[in-house]
From TrEMBL:
Annotated organism of origin: Hymenobacter jeollabukensis
InterPro entries given in the database record: Carb-bd-like_fold (IPR013784), DUF4382 (IPR025491)
A Pfam family it matches: DUF4382
Name by which UniProt lists this protein: DUF4382 domain-containing protein
Lineage: Bacteria, Pseudomonadati, Bacteroidota, Cytophagia, Cytophagales
SUPFAM superfamilies xref list: Starch-binding domain-like (SSF49452)
Amino acid sequence: MKQLTLFSLTALTVLGLAGCGKDNDKSGNAKLQIRLTDAPGDFRAVRLDVQRIELHLNPENDPDGWQTLPFTPQTINVLEYVNGRSALLVDTDFNPGTPQEIRLVLGPNNFVVGRDGNTYALKTPSGQTSGVKLRLQNVTLTAGQTYQLLLDFDVAKSIVERGNGNGNGNQNERYLLKPVIRVVAQDLNGAIRGTVSPTAAAPQVLAIRSSITVPDTFSTMADASGAYQLWSLPAGTYTVKYFPTTSAPAGQNPYLNATRTDVTVTNNAVKTIENVNLQP
């Protein structure tokens, strides 16, 4: 992990983007997800005033290459997203292409709550207008696939206490914000497939990754033949749940929900679940 000076950042090593997704998009767009997670720090809260998130598509020296992503400005307590938790910041369709950089534009209301219970402003070395820039390398957004960028914010390294320890007695001058952020691409190349019966139950199928602190959920529907498949899943252990969307004909046993537990998904492999009967 490299030290990043706010608003003038050296290049990060990007691990590439792996396809993931709840369903492949058929519109010719790629899908882009951006998540924020955190390494713990010695504070009660660390709140970042995130105003915009932008992606740069053109060559680096082209100032007109920035595109604003759909994002609701908000103050995020990054300490809520540790130990497997992550905040979903962006989930959008996007034109295929090769982005060069991502930029977070912060507002003025960044602050920390110390172990002493006091609130301290987070000062930045320069203005917020240029944003926190993270360079991307070897990233290609491909039509029909979903890509996930995980921004790993290191609180302990990003918040720097001034040398005198108290900002000359002014609590608004005690801490500086110098973000240290890794851009991580997760391996999202596993898959689950199977069949259900009766096919008329037309169930929704949820695959819930239970091997992380805050489970991820991926969904699809069984088709007219009773088949379903979920592609580009992160490796892990899943619980798969089936919810019929129709009712059984009169005189027949009702369609019932079903669950399969401990479904293991690995990278570059397809996990097949034996037929699930929704009408015992």
